[in-house]
Amino acid sequence: GPLEEVSLPLYFGWFLLSSIQDKIKCTSMDFLKTLDTLEAFKKHLIDFSGKAEEVDLEQYFQPTGILHCTTKFCNYGKAEGAKEYAEKQAVKDFYGSIFDLSLSALFVTPRTFGARVSLTEEQLQLWPADADAEKQAESVPAAASMPLGSRAHVTLGCAENVEPVQTGVDLLEILTLQQEGQQGEQVEEMELGTLTYYGTGKWLLNLREPISAPACFSSFYG
Ligand code: ACK
Fold this sequence. Notes:
The protein is α+β, with helices and mostly antiparallel strands. The protein has 9 helices and 8 strands. Strands 1, 2, 3, 4, 5, 6, 7 and 8 form an 8-stranded antiparallel beta sheet that branches. The radius of gyration is 18 Å and the shape is globular. The mean pLDDT is 91.
């Protein structure tokens, strides 16, 4: 019936608990503030503004709502594999459970600002198994050969007119460069970790201490 047709959510994912949301917002804003002042960043400003003019990164990225890590974008059932995912035993078993997500890096591109999530074996049970989950967001050809769960991230902000789906694409692009053996340019030892530049506006901060973020596995209907 019609009810069944709308019973699938917009997406499933881990929703960060509110206490940790505040902490992550503070940490990430501090990072943007620091990044903004680095000579190395200023040198590549053109990637962000099209001109060599200053950008205020804190203004540049708009918040995108509740912090979460999407596992499966279902689009109310219209996305490929949505129904299969919702019926997975692990999805049913873990629905409503609290997990500890490990945020292992922060990344910034001219389009998006996000945190990389390094999933455990248990958490990977909730990652869509359809092999092309990684390229669900498309447009990263090499992404198909990336380890399962590579795209896992928390979107922290998007540039004007950019959709949050872009954050996972940007992360995959950076990880693909790494996998292809690109070292990037290690530009700075920051308090939080090592900052690396991967060209064309792609910055990655590997966190010295991953941030442990309690999060509830659930779904969002909107
Ligand atoms: O930041 P995100 O992971 O990127 O969280 C939002 C959430 O679903 C609601 O829009 C993500 N999203 C949107 N479209 C897709 C897609 N085609 N593939 C994977 N994730 C998507 C978006």
